[in-house]
Amino acid sequence: MPTVNISMQGKISMVTGANSGIGKATALALAQMGATVVMVCRDRARGEEARSEITTKSRNNAVDLLQADLSSQQSIRQLVGNFQQHYTHLHVLINNAGAAFPGRRRETVDGLEMTFAVNYLAPFLLTNLLLDVLKASAPARIVNVSSDAQASGYIQIDDLQAEKLYRPMRTYPQSKLAVVLFTYELARRLQGTGVTANCLHPGFAATHIGQRDVGPAVRLLVKLIGSFGASPQKGAKTSIYLASSPEVEGVTGKYFVKSLPRRSAAISYDESLQRQLWEQSAKLVNL
Q1: pLDDT tens-digit readout, 55-85
Q2: What share of the chain is helix, strand, coil (3-state, %, to 5)?
Q3: Domain-embedded: residue 26
Q4: Which residue, 32, 53, 121, 205, could crosslink 235 as a Cys pair with Cβ 3.0–4.6 Å?
């Protein structure tokens, strides 16, 4: 995949979950292409450390850090406010941040199930709040990181918060399928604006996902499973491709694996479900 020769000079990109793993590798690659990169991180100290490393490796000083806790809707709104104080354009939005929460069901400060809130509602809200600036910056691109877990997901519109039945092996695939449904509905709504929306499966990569707020035994198990994964650099390739390649200029509403369009789960093409999920989501985030 030809990233080296592509210039992102003059382009402003935002990458969520940019202090480690796939997000950090994506942010570094875009900085190396000359983009202005806005890293969104939950932990300021880790974010600063990653930012300093990216600046040094890319020899690009246009790398910024904005702190946000994506499990909090207030924090997402503050993030957008902070971004808009400093920038008038956004050419690439990469919704990369994701999390898995093994064990018991937990809720966000907004009273929402954590996996669904972080993996899906956060990108839904963030993207919607940034749509005006993306349209004003067209051609612009939205890149949503999903997972092949979407293939085993199903959406229970009447139990999106997993209050009736909570199983980590159900909530994670549901959140990643929701990302795909959202991407397709979003792409349709953005037709003619010059803003594209695509989603992707990054491949099984060695990252810190699933190691947050869990006991040492679970953390060790997740680490062990993760050690069989590809490097974050490999996992970031499709995100980088969708963010920067001229080959996908104007391409929208697709699911990519290894930088190639692929069919996602059959249910993800259900337009009525896409619309229902959008309407429910808009209520849940007070849009």
Answers
A1: 999 999 999 999 999 999 999 999 999 999 9
A2: 50, 15, 35
A3: yes
A4: 205
C-alpha span between 223 and 206 (Å, rounded): 8
| CA-based torsion, 58, 61, 63, 66: positive or negative | positive
CA distance 122 to 127: 8
DSSP track, 187-234? HHHTTTTTEEEEEEE--SB---TT-TT--HHHHHHHHHHHTTSBPHHH
Q: Is 241 a catalytic residue?
A: no
CA distances from residue 243 to 26, 81, 102, 103, 247 in whole angstroms, order as listed = 9, 23, 31, 34, 11
Q: Is residue 2 part of a domain?
A: no
- Residue 261: C-alpha distances to residues 96, 145, 255 (Å): 18, 14, 6
Helix H or strand E segment including 67: strand 63-67
Does 212 score more than 80 pLDDT? no
Residue written as token pair 């900085």: 31
Does residue 42 sit within a domain?
yes
6 falls within a domain:
no
Poorest-pLDDT segment among 30-34, 58-62, 222-226: 222-226
Q: Give the 3-state secondary structure of residue 149.
A: helix
Closest CA to 185 of 243, 270, 263: 270
Alpha-carbon distance of 253 to 233, in angstroms, equals 25
Catalytic hit among 120, 172, 184, 241: 172
Q: Which domain holds residue 152?
A: 12-284
User: Is the confidence at residue 4, as pLDDT, over 70?
Assistant: no
Q: How far apart are CA 122 and CA 5, in angstroms?
A: 33
Pairing relationship of beta strands 92-95 and 140-145 according to DSSP bridges = parallel
How many folded domains does the chain comprise? Answer: 1
